[in-house]
Amino acid sequence: MVQNFLGIDIGGTKIFAVRMSASGKIEQEYKIPTEAAESQERVLKNIAFAVEKVRTSQTIGIGFSWAGFVDAQKGIVHHAPNISGFSNFALQKWAEKTFHLPIQIENDARLFALAHYKKYNISNLLGIVLGTGVGSGAIVDGHLLRGSQNFAGEVGHMKFSGIEIEDQLSGPALKKFLGRDSLRGEKITLSQIEPVLDIFADWLHSLLFAYNPENIFLGGGVGTHIYTDFLADLGAKLHERIKAHDYPLKCEIVVSDFPDASAVGAAELIQEHLRS
Fold this sequence. Notes:
Elements: E1 4-10, E2 14-21, E3 26-33, H1 40-54, E4 59-66, E5 69-71, E6 76-79, H2 91-99, E7 103-107, H3 108-120, E8 125-130, E9 134-140, E10 143-144, E11 159-160, E12 163-164, H4 166-169, H5 171-178, H6 190-211, E13 215-219, H7 220-225, H8 231-244, E14 252-255, H9 261-275
Parallel strand pairs: 1-4, 4-7, 8-13, 13-14
Antiparallel strand pairs: 1-2, 2-3, 5-6, 8-9, 9-10, 11-12
Helix pairs in contact: 3-9, 6-8
């Protein structure tokens, strides 16, 4: 039997489902609106519909990616900022009862990092997803970090000058700093965003000592559409900070070209779990 695994990324706007072969090939994809503003029942119905669109008789497990605080060991979504009605929701238990398959769940940013590790075989990396918030995941020596209470790698909640990084680098924070209602339209100039890039570089400099990554992958709408225009400037600022103290550190900042990484990471998660 040719086995396959499903990865389901549940976001505030859409549910993205993939079917992945045992060799890592993506065999099918499906996308459906989450309808997050509707009832919990509607969202669960949409999740189930997406699963059945990509599931086959050879599917042996499903991984779920969810934006928010997730307890992967207990299978619980503790906080879901973009989807109402799912605080302290036992997602794994619901999915096992619904689909009768082995289930694993994890935070979307951690799975973003895991997918890049599997794709590029880089054993030490950070994945940072910049959008409405700042999500992150860390791979150290080939292992996805979770920590004692599942907060390891949640570096978007670190504070700089008494303010969380999420409140300085996210989309809403950037709009507030620039005095704009939208980040679309008029082009942002280096002089306008440079103070934010200085904060970004200071933050990344600290992360190099915490995790010593070879690469930092930026994802999310703000990461891939706003900061990408200033990647060279951000990289130069980071290397200035490294050089100032003559530390033997090397790290490359890369804008991700892997748009559905969290769904693929979810499929990789369940495959890894079933192989262990």
